[in-house]
Design brief:
Layout lengths: L2 H6 L6 H38 L4 H4 L2 H14 L3 H31 L1 H16 L6 H8 L3 H25 L3 H9 L4 H12 L1 H25 L5 H10 L3 H33 L1
Helix pairs in contact: 4-13, 5-6, 5-8, 5-11, 5-12, 7-8, 8-11, 11-12, 11-13, 12-13
Length: about 280
């Protein structure tokens, strides 16, 4: 077995398992090559279109101008504090929205009265566009960090509550009846049955909340901030420097992807320990 063959079949338990692992890894490699090729073709067409005048370079910029502006701002130190401010607001909003939504879901699972009481309010709040709450957050928290985090929390907390509470209710009732026959109380039912069975749904909610937290923070920075990537987008639009807008979007895409992969890494650890 040569080096490449051994690498493709690493972790095999049997020859058949090795064949399966090799097939899956080759398939993943082909998908990766196709994804990279698609991105390369898109960037190449964009650059050619901009240089050839097929699209207006002033409106749509070009990959080379975006890359040049990015390195220029990075070299001058103009990007660090904007990026760090937005990432910090997003992380705080992401954690606060997830924790608050999960705690509310636990509370309404715990109390049937609370569940009936809050049900219509959750439906109304879920349907309401949270961006409309922006002026209220500015009045309540001022035009700064707290108003931006509040916007991120407002966008993610209701979705978290509904998804996590739904996962609690979908746990097989036979498991609950089984532990009840052994005298388990409500806290034991939750810790031994409900919570472990809901881990996949909670992790899925975390993945959704990554995107929602970024939306909330960027919208909040549109409204009130004097720093951050959302501020750079608005500033670039106001001075008609759309290359700056694309640079900000490029950084947001990288940071959001890193956060998403960190959640995926957490998922692997939690589910591995769970098995």
């Amino acid at each position: 077995m040569n080096g490449l063959e051994g690498w493709l079949r690493r972790g095999e338990k049997s020859p058949e398992h090795g064949d399966f692992l090799k097939k899956e890894r080759l398939y993943s490699f082909r998908v990766g090559i196709a994804q990279f090729s698609l991105l390369f073709i898109f960037i190449a067409l964009w650059e050619i279109s901009s240089r050839s005048g097929w699209i207006d370079p002033l409106l749509f910029s070009s990959p080379s101008r975006i890359w040049g502006t990015f390195w220029d701002m990075l070299w001058r130190g103009d990007l660090h504090h904007h990026t760090l401010a937005t990432v910090w607001e997003t992380v705080v909003g992401f954690i606060a929205g997830t924790v608050a939504g999960t705690l509310i879901a636990i509370a309404i699972w715990w109390s049937k009265f609370l569940s009936r009481l809050l049900d219509p309010y959750l439906v109304v709040l879920n349907g309401m566009p949270k961006v409309a709450l922006g002026p209220l957050f500015i009045v309540a928290f001022g035009g700064g960090f707290m108003a931006i985090v509040a916007m991120a929390v407002a966008i993610s907390v209701i979705v978290t509550t509904i998804v996590v509470y739904g996962s609690f209710r979908e746990v097989d009732q036979n498991y609950i009846k089984l532990v009840q026959t052994f005298g388990a109380n409500k806290a034991q039912i939750f810790s031994k049955i409900i919570l472990p069975a809901s881990f996949p749904a909670i992790i899925a909610t975390l993945k959704v909340n990554v995107g929602l937290a970024w939306v909330g923070v960027i919208v909040g920075e549109f409204l009130v901030s004097k720093q951050g990537l959302g501020y750079l987008i608005i500033y670039g639009f106001q001075v008609f420097n759309l290359t700056l807008v694309f640079v900000s979007l490029f950084i947001i895409a990288i940071c959001a992807t890193i956060m998403y992969h960190l959640v995926q890494f957490t998922e692997k650890i939690l589910l591995r320990n769970r098995d």
